[in-house]
Specification:
With 126 residues, the chain is mostly helical. 82% of the residues lie in helices and 0% in strands. The protein has five helices and no strands. The two termini are 15 Å apart.
Length: 126
């Protein structure tokens, strides 16, 4: 949002970019759930497609000069993040045996919470 404001987009339209990101992420999570239920589709490849979409949107985001490009890249960023978040849990739960699934899920979420807790203050210092 701050980068969009630096490119000359006012506060209200720039804040709408977060809405586009969130809505596309929600839609991507629902669609990804249905896609991963198909037997012949490997969730690892879906995860890779989501990670590639996220990375590509962040790389191309810096080339955006108009609001329509910012909105497009926000949608692709949300799609990629939604796909990777949805499939990462599925991959985690399928890579351990049944007895350890609950422990693995709890441990991964506990360890990820430290990164989620530390990210905003760290980003604020940059």
């Amino acid at each position: 949002m701050k980068y969009a404001q630096e490119q000359g987009i006012s506060f209200a339209p720039a804040s709408r970019l977060l809405m586009y990101d969130g809505l596309s992420s929600c839609i991507a999570r629902i669609v990804t759930g249905f896609i991963c239920n198909v037997k012949f589709i490997n969730p690892c490849f879906v995860y890779q497609a989501g990670a590639f979409t996220t990375a590509l949107s962040f790389v191309l985001f810096t080339a955006a000069t108009s609001y329509s490009w910012f909105a497009l890249f926000s949608v692709f960023s949300g799609l990629g993040k939604g796909i990777t978040i949805m499939t990462s849990n599925l991959i985690l739960l399928t890579c351990v045996d049944n007895e350890r699934r609950a422990t693995a899920f709890g441990l991964v979420n506990c360890l990820a919470s430290f990164a989620h807790l530390a990210s905003p203050p760290f980003a604020g210092n940059l």
